[in-house]
């Protein structure tokens, strides 16, 4: 047997076989130990003696917590492994080498049972040998050079490839097992439902918000999150791995695991974690890092890759250089269609879990089904989230967000948006209020990392270029970027932008003065004065007396979703019309939204409250004008505010306080506080009074005459440079009527 062949085949086994090694090498034709040692040197994988002794499993811990779980980072991890595991024949295909044949000759030895990880290590070694070109003098140099194309496949700017390359340089393989961990983070999600018995007491304070004391993660997101975690567990299981679910604080969880593994004489070689913006998230990273360092374990933070434009492609390094205006940022990264990096491949196989995993420490127990997980997350939550008169589900109303958590459902949703043509029509429909497909509803999966923005982009690309059959026959298929697909990209960039603002401004995200450091505005604090408290209660319960706001607040509470258009109106109502501490609204959204996302929520609230990144000064939404524009017949409001269902006149649906006594008596609404005494009487008249903002209570209104156009509305062929308003296509042009109304453009 020529030495070169032996070298490839046997290097495979040296990396992994432990006590089978020697026997097998001899079977393969090695004559003596000296020859085996020589082989080991060639592979730069340490002497076989070391390998033979090296029976201790080496573990890698991969960690996700709270809302930061990122399928993309798992994919990154998997790609890392996949690359090594990929059969050499694939890697070398096109290079004219049938290396598989040579490898198989040795790997498929029937006399040996190879555990699942063998191939990974084996190819690492082979690739290492090939890459190093370090075989000179050890055998047939010319043959090694010939089969050395692997280097050319490494992209130096790819952290994963860098990581692979780094690993290749090591003399030993860094790990044999991989343990993915998900932590329900106790500071963000109430975990007392996981207590092993009712007599136990949680060691953690209740996961309540700072200003108003709301549960930070309400029912809707708790369910979606549990579904997402279990979907991840399933898909990891399908790759030969799994997912360890924990509750607690990330740093503590890792500390306990490291201690337990140490006790069991298992060496943990590294802890990997996805990085995130946000104060708490940074604290978690610090705690985990410290725990790893204390144990002498490597800690690695993976860049979160769930965003549209990769961090490595942002045209500035210092977060402070992020422009304070979105449009300026957008211009720096256009054209958007060219901007994202490729999607990382999905896992096909991952290293196995450690043979023994320490269980969740007292006093918590981890549920064994998704249903039980949901039940445990829901258990401590008051179903009414503290409201005395919570909205109740109206007959015949259906949720605009009936979706399940997890990558599976997220991918399914993207496919649906392609095949239904909803991506192509998005620009016209995105301001809708009722139904499933007026907007993408992708935010919840994006927020949890179940899907990524660049996956969405890739689906769009394939559709636009007609690369796959998905969407064949649908309007726009194979015809390049259209207004709808461009608008989706545009919106996805907002997510990126707000995340970068969090990086830039840090804790200022949560300060009432906002990014602008606005100390001039005065706010009502419900914790301090009764009147503000009364107003906030009615705001939360959806009984402000302004139709659009009440519809949205009830929908939010009941379904966990409300559209972007409505979120803008609601935020503006609380911050501008009621002048209440906007953080109360942000916290309520955090509690109720399925798609809650730290940066998107808090930055959007700042933006609308006028303390964030909105370059337009003193912008206020008039919710009556907006109802006239976007809910022309009042159907949305009537869906959620049942009391108003039998009204025919939309203007009264928008402003129920305008109802006359007769009508009130007929509808049995006489004496109803929220109808008779709205929190604000926001005048808006079609026709000659248009443009008069404010109202009896001195409503703030905005600059009369603010035009609909706003800056940056120009639209070009396939491009999309501003947020158009879908209403014109719905036949609602108001030429000569409300052009000068006190309405305010959206972001
Ligand atoms: C006060 C307020 C609070 C918000 N809180 C959140 C939040 O916690 N989580 C969240 O994901 N979004 C938030 N948004 C942004 C936006 O309202 C939602 O992303 C959108 O309504 C989700 O529905 P969709 O996926 O159907 O959106 P689509 O209209 O289909 O948009 C496509 C995607 O673009 C992104 N996007 C759209 N609009 C915005 C925006 N204004 N800012 C940032 N990204 C955007 C989202 O990822 C969205 O999924 C908030 C907006 C406001 C005004």
UniProtKB/TrEMBL annotation:
Compositionally biased region (Pro residues): 349-361
Chain intervals with Basic and acidic residues compositional bias: 724-747
SUPFAM superfamilies cross-referenced by the UniProt entry: Cryptochrome/photolyase FAD-binding domain (SSF48173), Cryptochrome/photolyase, N-terminal domain (SSF52425)
UniProt remark on cofactor binding: Binds 1 FAD per subunit. Binds 1 5,10-methenyltetrahydrofolate (MTHF) per subunit.
Organism from which the protein derives: Letharia columbiana
Domain spans labelled Photolyase/cryptochrome alpha/beta: 148-307
Name of the protein described by the UniProt record: Cryptochrome DASH
Keyword field: Chromophore, FAD, Flavoprotein
Names of required cofactors: FAD; (6R)-5,10-methylene-5,6,7,8-tetrahydrofolate
Annotated spans, Disordered: 341-362, 686-747
